[in-house]
Predict the structure of TIGR04222 domain-containing protein.
Amino acid sequence: MNKELWDKVEAFQLDKWTDEYGFVLRLAKENLWTKNFTALAILEYKKFMYLAATSNQMVSPSEIVDIVWHQHLIFTQSYNEFCKLLGKDIQHIPSTHNRSDYEKFRQAKELTTKLYNETFGEQPASIWEYSTMYDTLKLKKANKPPMSIIRSSVITFFVLIPFAFFVLRPVYIHISSTAFMFFFIFAFIAAIVLIQRYNQSKIYDIIKYNSSSSFIFDLHPYELLYLNHKDVKEGVIATFNELIEQRNIKIGAFKNIEYIHDKIIQNREQAIVLKELRDTDVRSYLQLIDILKRKTVFTNQKTSMQQLLDYLLMSNKFNQVLIVNILVLGGLTFLTLMRVIIGISRDKPILFISILTVVIALCAVGVIGSLMKIDIPKGITKFYSETIIPKKQKENWQWSYVLGGNTALEVSLLSLVILANTQYAEKSNLDSSSDSSSNSCSSDSGSSCGSDSSCGSSCGGCGGGGD
């Protein structure tokens, strides 16, 4: 191995950290890659190009390395400088997919693996064995998207009502209203508790039992912050904190951000923040947050994490969890609704059972909605907090912020964050006060039930029971 050449290749910057949409950020955004996976793919691309430059025979990239190569070819100046550094003009030769080409590229792939193992050691499976980053999750794609399953379930729900009416009516008329109500209240509570535990367990398993080389085990702290808060501004706040610790910036007397220097810069996020401070006169914390959270270096967190969530939602394993939720919660809703319908057909009071049906239906919708929007991010966060962060927390302050939130911030920044959140809260209260005052209901309106009102001596309103 030519260590001197490799050190230069490894250190070669494909773009500047201050580029707001340079090579690296564009590569991540267009391919929906995470920050760490993008860095790994670029490193493997450099290794491949080193092999191409030092070998007298043809070498072949993986599909992911080829994506990086194609992107670099677009940045012609950077690519030409890279080839000059390598000492060889490396041409990209596309396959024509004929028989001779197939054999040529097969041999090149075998040679690449051999040279790589001799030079760098074992190839990372996530880059060299898979076609896309998301293939490392090894999740079979579902035949139907979740919303299609939900729509089909709703249609089936109403189609079954006429048939269930004739099947359940002879049974329901022999069950007392009181017994039915108590049984379904208990069943409903038990179902909610059990189904939530089931959901948490299954989602945890979907994340845990992946390929050990999967990118899901190597998320950046800022990406996990986005999963927790659904807002990229947490990454901006964390970057401010790093810059304060490094003495690049400080909080001024008027609660503004004051620029000091840019002699120490650890990552792209810091570079972009300092560039914004240098190039503009904006110093207000709130204004800076609003500007910076639109920068690609931060929005890429949202792009990659939303794609991850969508990919998990579209998996066959998730669909299995969703179907169990629909069968259990939809089944309870269906059985109570049938009680209402049968009660109406027998001219029985249905008030209480109708209320129970609405409550069960709303809770079913809430649980299924939470499963799709909240439970997966919570499952990923739980997995990280239990298995990954404890090993990394000492290496990186950012992980402490993921776990501890604002308590991990510098005191000066913490006071600013609290002040900003208070201002947001006050503004929200002012916006809603006019609406609440006009819609408030006086206690003298006479809408309450008087002490003389009575609900009857029996459990009327419980549907078509035998009472």
The beta strands are 249-251, 257-259.
